[in-house]
Amino acid sequence: GYIQYMLGLDSKYTRVMIVGHDPACLHLVQHLAHFKMLFKYPTSTYSEIYWRSVGDWSDAANQRGKLVNFIQPAGK
């Protein structure tokens, strides 16, 4: 559901924050950033993905996003 929702967003939005639960968040990050995690996606993790030239959200799934921030809570 997260991917379909994000890809349907209006292009007037240049930044979007999606908050949710695993395993959906892990799958979203892996799909959009073409990133394979070798460990469990920690609770309360913040992941930021950047696309260089996406003009419309529907294009995001067809281009490789870059994982530019991956912040885990302390002690994880």
Describe the structure.
This protein is 21% helix and 14% strand. The model has no long low-confidence stretch (mean pLDDT 83). The chain is globular. The chain is built from two helices and two strands, in the order ααββ. The protein has 76 residues and is α+β, with helices and mostly antiparallel strands. It has a two-stranded antiparallel ribbon with strand order 1-2. The termini are far apart.
Topology:
Layout: H1 2-7, H2 24-33, E1 46-50, E2 66-71
Antiparallel strand pairs: 1-2
The major pleated sheet works out as: 2 strands, antiparallel
Order of helices and strands: HHEE
Query: Percent of residues in beta strands?
Result: 5-15%
Global morphology = globular
Q: What structural category characterises the helix and strand content?
A: alpha+beta
Q: What's the helix count?
A: 2
Q: Helical amount among residues, as a percent range?
A: 10-25%
Strand order across the largest sheet: 1-2
Mean pLDDT: 83
Using only CA atoms, what is the Rg? 12 Å
Structural features:
alpha+beta; 76 residues; two-stranded antiparallel ribbon; 21% helix
Question: In brief, what are we looking at here?
Answer:
This protein is an alpha+beta fold and 76 residues long.
